[in-house]
Design brief:
Layout lengths: L2 E4 L3 H12 L4 E4 L3 H4 L8 E2 L11 E4 L4 H9 L15 E4 L5 H12 L4 E4 L2 E2 L2 H6 L3 E5 L2 H14 L3 E6 L3 H30 L3 H10 L5 H12 L8 H18 L4 H17 L5 H6 L5 H8 L21
Parallel strand pairs: 1-2, 1-4, 2-3, 4-5, 5-6, 8-9
Antiparallel strand pairs: 7-8
Helix pairs in contact: 3-4, 7-10, 7-11, 7-13, 8-9, 10-11
């Protein structure tokens, strides 16, 4: 298969790299070319114009928003509009976007005979490298079966096909709503234990070794213990996904009282940012920085414990 890839953010880069490491030939376009250039050392072919990827048998996209996806694929300068005759056979979109946005892209591509798979993922770049990334996919079953081996190249931990249309979007939005609730409540109980006298690293070791431990709680533990907020996923993106979840819940008449409460806790983090010397930098860090906001609300000032904490991703390569 001729494979194209658009989107060289932290996740897109790591996922495309897995395809290259598996011996696949991948052609890449990114709005900021410099972000894609390091992949050339791993065998990627960089193209000058996104329209050059229209000849791909399979075109992967990994972008920040639905607006970006629509513009890159269907806009005036998009892949479809600038295609010289041939269009991609299958577009596999790994972004986390809303159902309505995804449906518009599906319709627009369908008019040109392009099959569309919604295939968002769960994990961060280190999960990709460690083989702990998973994916949920929806769309035409036959198209999924053709590209499933490619998806499994980067989503080593698991691939779940959930049906036609954009059902995978509902699954990923629900996933990120749960993520928000887990990180918020994990921080709450960790701070409770710390204020009672338990070191953060000791409490999280107990939690991670218990029945409640997970890949997620393990790989966020180093950030919570040592206050390392190098971004894997920002609070702005997490808030966006919680808002998407609440919007779907209103449409489907599903009560989500815990999610609504968590949404207000996330908003408090944005309020706290306005008190910082550099609000943008405060919000550009990892969403685990929510621990600082909740600590201040508890009358606590945190410092790094400077303790090596296993993340569960130590087998990461690349």
């Amino acid at each position: 298969m001729e494979i194209g890839w658009i989107g060289m953010g932290r996740m897109g880069y790591a996922m495309a790299l897995r395809l290259l490491q598996a011996g696949r030939a991948v052609r890449v376009w990114n709005r900021t070319r410099a972000k894609a250039e390091p992949l050339a050392r791993h065998g990627a072919s960089l193209v000058q114009r996104r329209g050059e990827l229209a000849a791909s048998d399979v075109l992967f996209t990994m972008l920040s928003t639905g607006k970006d996806l629509e513009e890159v694929l269907l806009g005036a300068e998009g892949v479809i509009a600038t295609a010289a005759g041939r269009v991609p056979g299958i577009v596999v979109d790994c972004s986390t976007i809303g159902v309505e946005e995804s449906a518009r892209v599906r319709h627009g591509l369908g008019e040109r005979g392009v099959e569309f798979l919604s295939a968002p993922v769960s994990g961060n770049p280190r999960c990709v490298a460690a083989g702990k990334l998973s994916s949920v996919v929806s769309g035409p079953r036959a198209a999924f079966e053709r590209v499933e081996p490619l998806i499994r190249t980067y989503a080593v931990h698991g691939v779940s096909y959930v049906g036609e249309g954009d059902l995978a979007r509902i699954c990923k939005i629900s996933h990120n709503v749960f993520l928000a609730a887990v990180i918020e409540n994990l921080i709450e109980v960790m701070l409770l234990a710390q204020k009672a006298g338990v070191a953060r690293h000791a409490f999280l070791q107990f939690m991670n070794d218990s029945a409640l431990g997970s890949i997620f709680t393990r790989y966020k533990s180093p950030a919570l213990v040592n206050l390392d907020f190098k971004p894997t996923f920002t609070m702005e993106l997490l808030r966006k996904d919680v808002d998407l979840g609440l919007a779907v819940a209103r449409e489907l008449d599903v009560a989500m009282p815990v999610t609504a409460a968590v949404r207000e806790v996330l908003q408090a983090h944005f309020g706290m940012a306005t008190l910082q010397p550099d609000p943008q930098a405060y919000l550009a860090g990892d969403f685990a920085a929510l621990v600082e906001t909740l600590a201040r609300q508890a009358g606590m000032t945190l410092t790094s414990e400077n303790v090596p904490v296993p993340s569960g991703l130590e087998s990461a390569q690349g």
